[in-house]
Amino acid sequence: MISGAVAVWNAVPLEQRRMILLLVGAIAIANIAQPYPDLAPLQHGPTVALVLAAPWVLRRWPLSTAAVACIWIFLLLHTLGARWIYSYVPYDDWARAISGHDVSSLLGATRNFYDRIVHFAFGALLTLPISESAQRRGGLRKGWSLAFAFAAIGLGSALYEIFEWLLTILAAGDTADYYNGQQGDIWDAQKDMAVAQLGSAVAVIVLLRRRGQAHIGSPPAPEKDQP
């Protein structure tokens, strides 16, 4: 069993293995002196499960390193937000420490907007992996694969909001508002979905302008045999 797991791990391109290990390290660091221990398992659990499954998934359905990097960046952003359950990411404190000014005052913001950043990143960063999968396994042309990815982002956003709602009812209980990060906004779910769709639209435009780039839909380059 162990030798099989090692074989699966070694079958993943080196750059992608490094990203997986760095994500494991980020999750571990994010849980040091965890400020919200009761909600940490709900926030980090899905990421841990995805990390554990990643070598098998990438071996069965390989993606280019560019596509994996997009997923990796998104998960790093999520891991950072998950440490502070999104609503309390102290970016204003960080900004004041660096520049003497906080972001919220400069933008006139009355809520923590880190969750909006991650929802935008969901659309912007996952459009490429979805499009690549649609080309390589669905046989779609680039334009149609991007249309599919744009629609998939909308579906994924809606399903996530429904999942989040059900999870908070079943598991989060009285802490639902904190776990969801809605911060008292009754339209939070709709705004999150709109921001994700906007991120995907930006990604579609960028990828269409880069027509002909080899990494879109191309398999990862095989590793050279080690001596």
Q: What are the defining features of this structure?
A:
single chain; 10 helices; 227 residues; 0% strand; mainly alpha
Task: Name the overall outline.
Answer: globular
Unreliable runs, pLDDT <50, ≥5 residues?
A: none
Instruction: Please bin the fraction of helical residues.
Output: over 70%
Q: State the total count of DSSP E strands.
A: 0
What oligomeric arrangement do these chains adopt? single chain
Structure, described:
- The protein is globular, with a radius of gyration of 19 Å.
- The longest helix has 31 residues, at 142-172.
- The protein contains ten helices and no strands.
- By secondary structure, the protein is mainly alpha-helical.
- Helix 2 (14-30) runs parallel beside helix 4 and helix 3 runs antiparallel to helix 4.
- The protein has helices at residues 2-11, 14-30, 40-60, 65-83, 91-99, 103-107, 114-138, 142-172, 176-180, 188-209.
Produce the secondary structure layout:
Elements: H1 2-11, H2 14-30, H3 40-60, H4 65-83, H5 91-99, H6 103-107, H7 114-138, H8 142-172, H9 176-180, H10 188-209
Could you give a quick summary of the protein structure above?
By secondary structure, this protein is mostly helical. It contains ten helices and no strands.
